Amino acid sequence: MRATPPPKTYRVKSFGCQMNVYDGERMAELLADRGIAPAAEGEDADLVVLNTCHIREKAAEKVYSDIGRLRKADGSKPLIAVAGCVAQAEGEEIMARAPAVSMVVGPQAYHRLPEMLDKAVAGERATDTDMPPIAKFDALPARRRAPPSAFLTVQEGCDKFCTYCVVPYTRGAEISRPFADLIAEAERLVAGGAREITLLGQNVNAWTGEDDKGRAIGLDGLIRELARLPDLARIRYTTSHPMDVTDGLIAAHGEIDKLMPFLHLPVQSGSDPILKAMNRSHDADGYLRLLERFRAARPDIALSGDFIVGFPGESEADFEATLQLVDAVGYAQAFSFKYSPRPGTPAATMADQVAPEIMDERLQRLQAALNRDQIAFNQASLGKTCPVLVERKGKKPGQLLGKSPWLQSVWFDSDVSIGEIVEVELAEAGPNSMAGRVRASATT
Ligand code: 5AD
Ligand code: SF4
């Protein structure tokens, strides 16, 4: 590679989960700290960071087509860094396959991006896929401004080894960030304007730590402490694993007003043999009983989940068990995917891989059921008046967009400021959003 002038502008493109969004924001801050400016919408960037996702094959392949397409208006290539889980899993392959890439940085090493950039400017290619836990959080600059709804990564990695999943390999073992660091970061987010914090982790409810009195606490204890921050109005968390649900977490939903009535608890399948083959450590009935307990603690809780169709060996009867579970739960929203074999995972070499056309057909049926329930949930909300946190301006003048407590997107006309919480009557229900009418300016 040839030496290049130091970049003046950057763009970070994040794919995949919310943890990547958080990591992408932190990388942007690192670059901004170096005096590199974010490229304006529609303008060339001298440095592009592709913050990638490896969870499904499509997401991973997209990286290579993106690299091929990246070009400035004058035809030259920008400096390209590949970050995230594809970088972790396929670092060497990327370097071999994509000569335009000068930096490959794994999700645990991105605090070293500035040093790698120095090398890249000098014409050297650099890869860093070390996995030192916590170090990256300590090394990152303090945050000055925060959006009304901000993310805070509290836990990373996964020890569950579901047989289809690459996360334990790309993000490493489960680690929890220390309590004091999280309280300090939350305080900074709130000082920077955040009204809502979503606690993030691949297994967020596996978070454990010690509070300032040295007592061992779990995620519910952390939520309780965060709820004491006066200017923080809302707390959410995602993604949870059924195995790590505690009595305390369920109780917290009934006791802490600031904890929003929403739970994302992936189940993946409604069939016990498939759950077993997935190494999920729960069966369908155990999952349903957990949800009942959340509903008993917080009757209006909105439920969300993740599903995989076409896992190896999934029969029509197995799939129908998934549809039955969906009917039994009545999800407010959910994510569903076709099984995608990931290299190095046990399921990739299992017998009885399901044919693509069967997967397509099952995904369509599942999504029809989930959409039906999402619309039903939104329709059941009609006429309710609820607090909405204003997150941004809408497309039309005077229009604002915010979130209901149940994570519905709500559009309405108003001149209140972004970051305010207003009482809005939910007046029209669409499949993916609600239209509302402002009742009054509330808690702010
Ligand atoms: N194929 C399809 N979906 C997957 N997920 C994880 N691994 C795979 C895979 N190999 C889905 C799961 C998980 C979500 C983040 O992505 O549903 O909960
Ligand atoms: Fe992947 Fe399972 Fe861990 Fe979730 S719990 S990250 S699906 S291994």
Automatic annotation (TrEMBL):
Its main location: cytoplasm. Keywords: 4Fe-4S, Cytoplasm, Iron, Iron-sulfur, Metal-binding, S-adenosyl-L-methionine, Transferase, tRNA processing. Residues 144-376 form the Radical SAM core domain. It catalyses: N(6)-dimethylallyladenosine(37) in tRNA + (sulfur carrier)-SH + AH2 + 2 S-adenosyl-L-methionine = 2-methylsulfanyl-N(6)-dimethylallyladenosine(37) in tRNA + (sulfur carrier)-H + 5'-deoxyadenosine + L-methionine + A + S-adenosyl-L-homocysteine + 2 H(+). GO terms for molecular function: 4 iron, 4 sulfur cluster binding; metal ion binding; tRNA-2-methylthio-N(6)-dimethylallyladenosine(37) synthase activity. GO terms for cellular component: cytosol. It comes from Tsuneonella suprasediminis. [4Fe-4S] cluster 1 binds at C17, C53, C85. NCBIfam families: miaB-methiolase (TIGR01574), MiaB/RimO family radical SAM methylthiotransferase (TIGR00089). Binds 2 [4Fe-4S] clusters. One cluster is coordinated with 3 cysteines and an exchangeable S-adenosyl-L-methionine. The keyword Secreted does not apply. Belongs to the methylthiotransferase family. MiaB subfamily. Residues 8-122 form the MTTase N-terminal domain. Its cofactor is [4Fe-4S] cluster. Monomer. [4Fe-4S] cluster 2 binds at C158, C162, C165. This is tRNA-2-methylthio-N(6)-dimethylallyladenosine synthase. Residues 379-440 form the TRAM domain. Catalyzes the methylthiolation of N6-(dimethylallyl)adenosine (i(6)A), leading to the formation of 2-methylthio-N6-(dimethylallyl)adenosine (ms(2)i(6)A) at position 37 in tRNAs that read codons beginning with uridine. SUPFAM superfamilies: Radical SAM enzymes (SSF102114). The keyword 4Fe-4S applies. Its EC number is 2.8.4.3. It is an enzyme of class 2 (transferase). It is found in: Cytoplasm.
